[in-house]
Amino acid sequence: MLSGMSTSAERPFKIPESVLVVIHTAEAQVLLLERVDKPGFWQSVTGSKDHPDEPLVQTAIREVQEETGIVVGGAAVPHAALRDWGLINVYEIYPVWRHRYAPGVSSNTEHVFGLLVPAGTPVRLAPDEHLRFQWLPMADAADACFSPSNAEAVLQLPNFLPARSA
Q: How many domains are contained in the chain?
C-alpha cells in the first residue's frame, strides 16, 4: 500500500486539519446542511484540506462551492464576505469517521470562518454529501447542529455580524 493512502487505495487519508464555515445572512439566518451518511445530522459547511499546503481560505472557498454551489469571489458574494473568525477547535474525531484518517489519528484541528451572503442566496447541494438544507435563526441553528463545536461557532455569530446603521 502506498504511504498516505487508505486501505481501499482509492483515495488518500483525510488531513486532520479542516474548516468550518458558518454561512449566514446579515439578519443572522444560518444555513445548515443535512448529512447523507447520517440523516438527521445537521451542520455548517465543513471540509478538510486537500493537501497540507492548501491555504485555509482556499479550503473554505472550495468547500463552500462544492457543498452549496455558492461561489465566493463573484458579484453576489465577494471575497471580503468570507472572514476567518480566528477561532480554532481541536476535537476528537467521531469513531464512525476515523477510518478516513491515517492510523493513530484521533483528533482534528478545525478553523472557523464566517460567510456573509445576501438573503435568498440560492443553494445547490452536493447530492453525495447532503440531503437537504435549511435557513434557521441563529439560536435554532445552534440547537440543530449535531456537533458541539459547530453549535458554539454558530453562537459566536453576533460577534461577527456587520454593524447596523441606526
A: 1
